[in-house]
Design brief:
- By secondary structure, the protein is mostly helical.
- 64% of the residues lie in helices and 0% in strands.
- It has 6 helices and no strands.
- Helix 1 runs antiparallel to helix 2, helix 2 packs antiparallel against helix 3 and helix 3 packs antiparallel against helix 4.
Length: 136
C-alpha cells in the first residue's frame, strides 16, 4: 500500500482500539486487537503491525517479570518498526518516531535493570511504556 492509498478503516479502527488498550496497560489485548490486521496486511504494513504486536508482547513479559522475554520481544519489535518507519502507509497514522524512541528507552531499562528491580511488586510496569499516539 503506498502512502497515497487510503488506509483501510478497519485497520485505523484497530489502531485506535489498540492505542486505548496499550495506554490502559492491557498489552495482551492490544496484541489480540492487532493480530487480525497483521495477518491480513501486505508488506511493508505487515511488518509494521508485527512490530507493534511484538512491543506489546514485550510489555506483557515485563508485567510477568520475565526480563529475557521482554528484551527479546522489545528488540525484535523495535527492529521491525525501525525498518519500516518510512515505508509503511500506517507510519503516518501514528507518532511512530516517538513510539520507537520511547520503546528504545524501555528496552534500555530492561537490558540494564538489576535483579532486585525485577522483583518489585508494583501495579505498573517496571519500564514505562511508550506513548501510542494515533493521529485522527
Amino acid at each position: 500500500m503506498s502512502a497515497s492509498t487510503p488506509l483501510p478503516l478497519s485497520a485505523i479502527a484497530a489502531l485506535h482500539k489498540a492505542r486505548a488498550q496499550f495506554e490502559a496497560q492491557q498489552f495482551w489485548d492490544c496484541h489480540e486487537t492487532l493480530e487480525p490486521v497483521w495477518l491480513a496486511a501486505a508488506e511493508p504494513d505487515k511488518t509494521f503491525f508485527q512490530g507493534l504486536i511484538q512491543v506489546a508482547a514485550g510489555f506483557v513479559h515485563i508485567q510477568k517479570r520475565n526480563p529475557k522475554g521482554a528484551q527479546s520481544l522489545l528488540g525484535q519489535g523495535l527492529e521491525k518498526l525501525q525498518g519500516v518507519r518510512h515505508h509503511s502507509a500506517f507510519q503516518a497514522a501514528m507518532a511512530l518516531d516517538t513510539f520507537i524512541s520511547e520503546t528504545q528507552t524501555a528496552l534500555n531499562w530492561v537490558t540494564h535493570a538489576r535483579t532486585d528491580q525485577w522483583q518489585q511488586e508494583t501495579p505498573e510496569p517496571l519500564a514505562h511504556p511508550p506513548r501510542f499516539i494515533v493521529r485522527s
